[in-house]
Design a protein that fits this description.
By secondary structure, the protein is an alpha/beta fold. It has a single domain, classed as 3-Layer(aba) Sandwich (Rossmann fold), CATH 3.40.50.150. Helix content is 39%, strand content 20%. The protein contains eight helices and seven strands, in the order H-H-H-E-H-E-H-E-H-E-H-E-H-E-E. Helix 3 packs parallel to helix 4. The chain is globular and about 45 Å long. The N and C termini lie far apart (36 Å).
Length: 221
């Protein structure tokens, strides 16, 4: 899922976000359908603003293999599937059967479905069971697990690959002192510091959506 109930979303001013959204030409039937379903459930999505960045960054590095720590019913996977092209593969993971069922229902007639392998289970176990390197890894799971995902993902990224993480600004909460009982904000603050101090990465934060961290894996010395 994109974030738990105690989070916020939307760093960009709503007027600016609407303007950016209106620049994109025409409707998108798949995204429209997924967003309508999310509205019905009150499910928070990464959003089109950040989603377009996922697709663009994937295309920019010629990525063909993507892994998601947290996929919901496939919204972010749709952007990655576009980015990797017909020969690419997106590994989406969720532990809840209803998310997998929703993915199957909403992607049933979508050509992009052929590019997505949807795993039902624990994302960390699935990641460790898969062989080889990845071009892109997205971290969008429970916030207290972000550091664990970072530790596992970086060694499995190819040089020039990308580590992406959603919600790193957390509605601005990460920029302020966190309450001792606010586990999600504390975890994100620790993750952000670790990301920017990791000498294997070139990191930055895009102020899109709820904050999208982008870190390029450095070549081996």
């Amino acid at each position: 899922m994109s974030f738990p109930h105690d989070g916020f979303t939307g760093i960009v001013h709503p007027e600016v976000r609407s303007y950016i959204g209106e620049l994109a030409p025409g409707p998108d039937l798949l995204l429209d359908r997924l967003e309508a379903y999310a509205d019905e459930r009150g499910f928070p999505l990464i959003g089109r603003e950040s989603g377009r960045w996922l697709e663009l960054l994937t295309r920019m590095i010629g990525a063909r293999r993507v892994f998601e720590f947290g996929s919901g019913f496939g919204y972010s996977a749709a952007f990655f599937a576009r980015g990797v092209g017909p020969e690419g593969r997106v590994h989406a993971v969720e532990r809840d059967t209803w998310e997998r069922d929703a993915f199957e229902a909403h992607f049933s007639d979508a050509a992009l479905k052929a590019r997505i392998t949807y795993h039902l289970g624990d994302a960390f176990q699935v990641f460790q069971a898969l062989d080889g390197l990845f071009d892109v890894v997205l971290v969008d799971c429970n916030k207290v697990d972000y550091q664990r995902a970072l530790d596992l993902a970086v060694p499995r990224l190819r040089p020039g690959g990308l580590l992406l993480a959603d919600n790193v600004l957390w509605g601005g909460k990460t920029a302020r002192p966190a309450q001792p009982d606010d586990a999600s904000t504390l975890a994100l603050q620790d993750f952000n510091r670790a990301l920017f101090h990791d000498t294997r990465l070139w990191p930055a934060v895009l102020p899109a959506g709820d904050g999208l961290a982008v870190a390029l894996k450095r070549p081996a010395p």
